[in-house]
């Protein structure tokens, strides 16, 4: 009975326009935030999955010290529903066709690869085959270069330690081949079960055990959490995000999703705030009436709290009813785009921010104005203006900012982001308040209309209160939408620049100095000119300021770069995508010094002027550090930790050359001819990696565009809600102006101009505030550089002026179609 | 100001001529006839009171006379212009330049101050210094001290006086008033009717008003009765009694 009464009252409320606006705002708020959050978490998973092929798994556990992990760890993983696989990597000499060769062996279990696939050739020069597992026991797959180095043909045998294995295929590509040029020795892939029989692995040999894990994210995370406390220093638990190749792209995509979600929270909060505040204001007469009917202050509080709670529930349910199907649609769109089914992932945690946003902004904005009325005598409520006292407005304003940014913080948990957004919103409000206030005060001079322009300006002044607050909301909405638009544009541009359509997708490594010209000619003739050629000298960093390097930096640090030979190079000019962060690049003619990659330098704790000693073969080279450089590891170009000047420390040392070029997929057969003609040169095929990255970028682009679209739609709705907040007043005024003899066309033009000016002004301030926000975000979150975006700054205010003036025209609609008499009767 | 004056409209044509006027509105199932067969002529400078029971169609008639609506049948000629045949925009121009209207429910804009409400028609007409004129008018209706108060803060009678000041603002040649003293006490009502009569006398403004106030009706030169949508004009003897 009580329930039916409540339902009845909700039904009655629904007939009130302000209530409908509140409910609509709530639903849109929940729908936008929930959809974006759900989609973001889905996308994050999909991204990580498609990037996982780079690890051949979702996670890897790398063990460098040559001792396998306890079997119980794998059992634990299985019990959590994870799939596992194993690899053993080591270097050894192999014997075949009367020749010896140092190779890098990767022995894999049956399950390898858990993610991704391999490409092999079972006939020399034959078709490329894609397979989903490694060689069976008793067989090896080898790199084409090794075949030539040893003078073998397919079907011959290869001796690995004590074991003789049949060479059954050429290994062209492995998913986790990655992009490390360190593996210069040609690859031999064999089955893990054959390793023991080879007898190659002795205690003390340098062996890397790699354990592969795949499964659903929750299980991976819980297993990771279980595992971490037991890891030893030599163990490394890696996800694809820790890799160099993709981490930056993924990170930036995730940041974008976070930003998009935060903006959605902000917009949603503004929408609910505007609507619920409007509702609260419209309830003054009802509150007064309830008081005259004898309802007590607490009674009123209870009544409204209960109402708000009911709407909150209705809004949330309605919003989720929109969000969930929308999310399914978006997720399956993602699947279509990827040409493979996407495992749908409904993250319940993603829904929470939406609910918090709806409920907090509903209560924070609707309740205080009503609560204040509790103690005011009914008559005074009726006789006062609903704008409230200044002090109270300030208090509400601060409460509003705290509530809204509390929500953003709750969602993003990222101080930089919250500060950047809060800062620009406050800046925007100050500028709008100041400039808008001054402008409107200036309008006071214009009295009397006659033409549409003057009437519009008079109108702006007449509605100054509403004009200023609408300007604030428009400005904020435009700022949020423009921020996302700007970040999106610069992200997409960046990606395009980073991976142009014909980015080099093949590397040639180990080019002998005298073969340089022939190699260049070979590819030039086929229409695939080479990119820059870099010399490469293999050397180990051994001493820092005369002390053995491991001692100098502390033995407990496990830095991979110290355990292996590094690629050293010399170059005269800094590559375009490298940046000097400290020190100076070599001036022409300089022959001393070394430039070190900045991150490695930091891990080693290097300072400018430190002397580094490298051992190259039997020689040593000592040079002072003259600069630190950042390197774009994901640029898919040759990158070097250490660079010397031409004629510097590396002069006279044995060098080979490395280069890259673009080879279209339909011309891969040229590689057969190439390997025949240059058997000692390694070809590193990264076209699949590049294709994968491009696919990831496509996904992220789709996501970005979708989220941008949703934000723009939400922004439009917020603006419409703001305009509709004054709808009744405006229509009454329009009707009255018509009875007073205003022509319809004059009314239309002056209203559109008035709103156009308002929208244009809000647009200008909004877009400038967006630039400020982007400026703040860009450095900290997206590592981009800042520049003015004229392609956004100019059109946005124009679009905003047009849009707002159309909104003004729209709200005037009903005033124009019927006779003034009827209008006045209706509005009574 | 009178650029709209119809050249045919000299002092001999009536200010208002209504012939065969009927007004019907569609209801859910059938139509409601509010006015039927109304014929009426009002001369320049005349003052006319329309009396009748609640719901008899007074407001509807006044609205049709002022060109705020178009009749279902018949014609209305105001100051020489056939307003029932004019386009809505032409009617608007006519209203702006020559018609004043005081609504039964005032129709003040709640968000604007008294001063701004009175300035509205002046701004619309593009008049210079609309605030000075609006101030004068408000002073004249005794609200010189309440310029910046909004309708909510004013009493019913004060709101009515603001509405009257607004109706006077553009110096109309004909003023329609729907129960202008309906909410006023005797003394204020008296003051308002004095104001209206003075306007009628001094500026020759034609006055057409709906009123329940017998006293005010008696001060008008003519009284018209409306009942169930039909208009009748009692003889002089009848109306005095
Ligand atoms: N647009 C409309 N739709 C439906 N009914 C209408 C409409 N306009 C007027 N009426 C009806 O026509 C009748 C006359 O209305 P009107 O407002 O003219 O009465 P009135 O004489 O002014 O009454 P009062 O003295 O109470 O103001 C009323 O019954 C009213 O409900
Ligand atoms: Mg009436």
UniProtKB/TrEMBL annotation, chain A:
rRNA-binding among keywords: no
- Membrane-topology annotation of the record: Multi-pass membrane protein
Q: Pfam families, per this entry?
A: FtsX, MacB_PCD
Q: Where in the cell is it found?
A: Cell membrane
Q: Which residues form the signal peptide?
A: none
Annotated membrane-spanning segments are 21-40, 256-275, 308-330, 350-370, 393-412, 418-444, 465-487, 702-725, 746-768, 788-807
Key words, A-Z: Cell membrane, Membrane, Transmembrane, Transmembrane helix
Q: Which residues form the ABC3 transporter permease C-terminal domain?
A: 262-376, 707-807
Key word Cell membrane present: yes
**Record-annotated MacB-like periplasmic core domain positions:** 23-226
Its recorded name reads ABC transporter permease
């Amino acid at each position: 009975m009580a329930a039916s009464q409540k339902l009845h009252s909700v039904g009655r409320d629904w007939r009130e326009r302000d209530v409908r606006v509140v409910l609509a705002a709530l639903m849109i708020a929940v729908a936008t935030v929930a959809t974006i959050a759900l989609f973001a978490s889905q996308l994050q998973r999909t991204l990580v999955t498609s990037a996982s092929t780079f690890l051949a798994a979702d996670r890897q556990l790398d063990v460098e010290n040559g001792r396998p992990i306890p079997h119980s760890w794998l059992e634990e993983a299985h019990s959590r529903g994870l799939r596992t696989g194993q690899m053993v990597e080591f270097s050894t000499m192999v014997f075949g066709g009367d020749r010896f060769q140092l190779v890098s062996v990767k022995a894999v279990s049956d399950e390898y690869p858990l993610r991704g696939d391999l490409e092999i050739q079972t006939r020399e020069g034959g078709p490329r085959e894609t397979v989903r597992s490694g060689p069976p026991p008793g067989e090896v797959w080898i790199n084409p270069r090794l075949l030539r180095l040893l003078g073998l043909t397919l079907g011959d045998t290869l001796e690995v330690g004590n074991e003789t294995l049949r060479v059954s295929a050429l290994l062209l590509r492995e998913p986790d081949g990655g992009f490390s040029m360190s593996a210069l020795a040609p690859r031999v892939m064999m089955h893990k079960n054959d390793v023991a029989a080879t007898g190659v692995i002795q205690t003390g040999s340098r062996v890397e055990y790699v354990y592969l894990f795949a499964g659903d994210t929750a299980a991976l995370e819980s297993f990771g959490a279980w595992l971490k406390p037991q890891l030893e220093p030599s163990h490394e638990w890696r996800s694809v995000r820790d890799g160099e190749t993709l981490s930056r792209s993924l990170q930036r995509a995730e940041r974008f999703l976070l930003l998009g979600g935060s903006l959605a929270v902000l917009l949603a909060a503004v929408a609910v705030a505007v609507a619920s505040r409007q509702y609260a204001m419209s309830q003054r007469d009802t509150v007064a009436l309830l008081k005259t009917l004898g309802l007590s202050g607490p009674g009123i509080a209870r009544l409204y709290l209960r109402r708000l709670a009911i709407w909150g529930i209705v809004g949330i349910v309605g919003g989720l009813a929109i969000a969930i199907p929308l999310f399914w649609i978006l997720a399956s769109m993602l699947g279509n785009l990827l040409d493979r089914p996407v495992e749908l992932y409904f993250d319940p945690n993603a829904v929470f921010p939406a609910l918090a946003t709806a409920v907090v902004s509903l209560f924070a904005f609707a309740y205080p104005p009503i609560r204040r009325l509790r103690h005011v005598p009914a008559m005074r409520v009726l006789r006062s203006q609903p704008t409230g006292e200044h002090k109270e407005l300030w208090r509400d304003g601060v409460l509003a900012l705290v509530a809204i940014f509390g929500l953003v913080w709750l969602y993003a948990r990222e101080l930089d982001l919250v500060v950047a957004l809060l800062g620009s919103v406050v800046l925007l409000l100050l500028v709008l308040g100041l400039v808008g206030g001054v402008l409107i005060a200036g309008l006071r001079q214009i009295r009397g209309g006659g033409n549409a322009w003057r009437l519009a300006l008079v109108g702006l002044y007449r509605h100054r209160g509403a004009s200023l607050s609408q300007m604030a909301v428009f400005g904020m909405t435009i700022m949020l939408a423009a921020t996302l638009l700007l970040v999106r544009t610069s992200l997409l541009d960046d990606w395009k620049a980073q991976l142009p359509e014909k980015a080099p997708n093949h590397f040639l490594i180990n080019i002998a100095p005298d073969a340089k010209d022939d190699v260049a000619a070979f590819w030039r003739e086929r229409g695939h000119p080479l990119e820059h050629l870099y010399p490469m000298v293999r050397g180990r960093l051994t001493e820092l300021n005369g002390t053995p390097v491991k001692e100098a930096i502390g033995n407990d640090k496990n830095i991979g770069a110290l355990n292996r030979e590094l690629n050293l190079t010399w170059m005269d000019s800094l590559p375009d995508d490298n940046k000097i962060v400290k020190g100076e690049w070599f001036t022409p003619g300089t022959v001393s010094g070394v430039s070190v990659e900045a991150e490695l330098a930091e891990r080693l704790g290097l300072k400018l002027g430190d002397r580094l000693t490298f051992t190259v073969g039997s020689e040593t080279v000592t040079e002072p550090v003259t600069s630190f450089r950042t390197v774009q590891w994901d640029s898919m170009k040759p990158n070097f930790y250490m660079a010397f000047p031409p004629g510097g420390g590396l002069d006279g040392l044995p060098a080979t050359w490395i280069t890259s070029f673009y080879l279209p997929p339909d011309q891969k057969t040229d590689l057969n001819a190439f390997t025949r003609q240059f058997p000692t040169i390694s070809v590193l095929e990264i076209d699949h990696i590049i294709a994968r990255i491009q696919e990831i970028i496509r996904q992220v682009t789709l996501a970005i565009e979708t989220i941008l679209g949703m934000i723009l739609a939400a922004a439009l709705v917020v603006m419409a809600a703001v305009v509709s907040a004054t709808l009744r007043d405006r229509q009454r005024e329009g009707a009255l102006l018509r009875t007073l003899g205003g022509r319809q066309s004059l009314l239309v033009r002056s209203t559109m101009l008035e709103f156009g000016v308002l929208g244009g002004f809000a647009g200008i301030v909004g877009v400038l505030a967006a630039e400020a926000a982007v400026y703040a975000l860009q450095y900290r979150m997206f590592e981009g550089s800042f520049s003015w975006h004229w392609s956004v700054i100019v059109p946005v205010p124009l679009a905003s002026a047009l849009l707002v003036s159309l909104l003004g025209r729209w709200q005037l609609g009903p005033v124009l179609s019927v006779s003034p008499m009827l209008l006045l009767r209706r509005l009574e | 100001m009178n650029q709209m004056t119809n050249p045919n409209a000299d002092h001999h044509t009536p200010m208002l001529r209504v012939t065969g006027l009927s007004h019907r509105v569609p209801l859910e199932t059938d139509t409601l006839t509010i006015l039927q067969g109304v014929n009426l002529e009002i001369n320049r400078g005349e003052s006319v009171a329309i009396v009748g029971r609640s719901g008899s169609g007074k407001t509807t008639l006044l609205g049709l006379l002022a060109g705020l609506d178009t009749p279902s049948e018949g014609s209305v000629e105001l100051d020489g212009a056939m307003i029932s045949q004019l386009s809505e925009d032409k009617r608007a121009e006519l209203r702006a330049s020559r018609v004043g209207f005081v609504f039964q429910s005032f129709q003040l804009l709640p968000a604007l101050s008294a001063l701004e409400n009175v300035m509205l028609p002046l701004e619309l007409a593009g008049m210079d210094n609309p605030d000075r004129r609006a101030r004068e008018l408000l002073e004249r209706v005794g609200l010189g001290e309440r310029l910046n108060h909004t309708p909510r803060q004013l009493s019913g009678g004060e709101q009515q006086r603001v509405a009257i000041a607004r109706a006077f603002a553009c110096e109309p040649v004909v003023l329609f008033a729907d129960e202008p003293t309906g909410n006023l006490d005797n003394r204020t009502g008296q003051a308002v009717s004095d104001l209206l009569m003075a306007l009628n006398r001094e500026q020759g403004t034609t006055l057409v008003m709906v009123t329940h106030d017998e006293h005010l009706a008696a001060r008008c030169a003519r009284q018209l009765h409306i009942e169930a949508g039909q208009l009748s004009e009692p003889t002089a003897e009848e109306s005095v009694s």
